[in-house]
Design a protein that fits this description.
With 251 residues, this protein is an alpha+beta fold. It has 2 domains: 104 residues, Cytidine Deaminase, domain 2, CATH 3.40.140; 125 residues, Alpha-Beta Complex (endopeptidase fold (from Nostoc punctiforme)). The protein is 21% helix and 25% strand. It contains 5 helices and 11 strands. The protein has a 6-stranded antiparallel β-sheet. Strands 2-1-3-4-5 form a 5-stranded mixed β-sheet, with helices on both faces. Strand 9 and strand 10 form a beta hairpin. The protein is elongated, with a radius of gyration of 21 Å.
Amino acid sequence: MRKHIIAAIQSHAAAEYPKECCGLVLAVGRAQKYFPCRNIATEPNEEFLLDPEDYAAAEDLGEVIGIVHSHPDATSRPSSRDLAMCEATALPWHILSWPEGDLRTITPTGSTPLLKRPFVHGVQDCFAVVRDFYMRAMGIELPNYQRTDGWWESAENASLYEQHYKAAGFEQVDSPQRGDMIVMEVGRTAHPNHAGIYLGTNPTLPGEESAVFGPGPFVLHHLYGRPSEVIVYGGPWLQRTRLILRHKEAR
């Protein structure tokens, strides 16, 4: 990274300390510049949320080629969310520890494993693993509905699965086959709020090495606060099932 951009990032981090600063690296013609943005997170000392109006203003000036934020009183080591968001944005992320001053860059790999991915709500969660499976296994791109914190405990969750599955190309079936979406009800809720992929007796995942999980049948899912995993589909999971959905293009 060019020296004048590093200096601008350091100056921004110092001005915002002890809050996290955030900004964008832009390509403006042949030149590059740092575009400082507002951090509108509820807890800016702990995380950042880049103001979308600032992002739009930056795009009017040039091409966004990197995302920047600081880690106050911490190392530049990326968090699980940093890694997940780097993949989601498909852009390099530059992380500055402050006041230490260490700058680290992480780059997207282009593919997050379906298995053992950390949970990051809205980015790497149960619906995300479903979307990624459909794209990798069948080439089907599902809509990416916005998920706000706590949706799974309120009536709002109905809009994600119960109200949207038909528009997303799914129809309800009575018995599952490999690739179907299993929609379940977990925790204290009156609506289905969790989903996984029915794998049948073959736990192999697209692009990943197969493993022995037991006799099956299996479901790939991603519970809140836990790594994504393949489980045996039976017992309480079968009892929690509320919908079995098959995509029209998967027939």
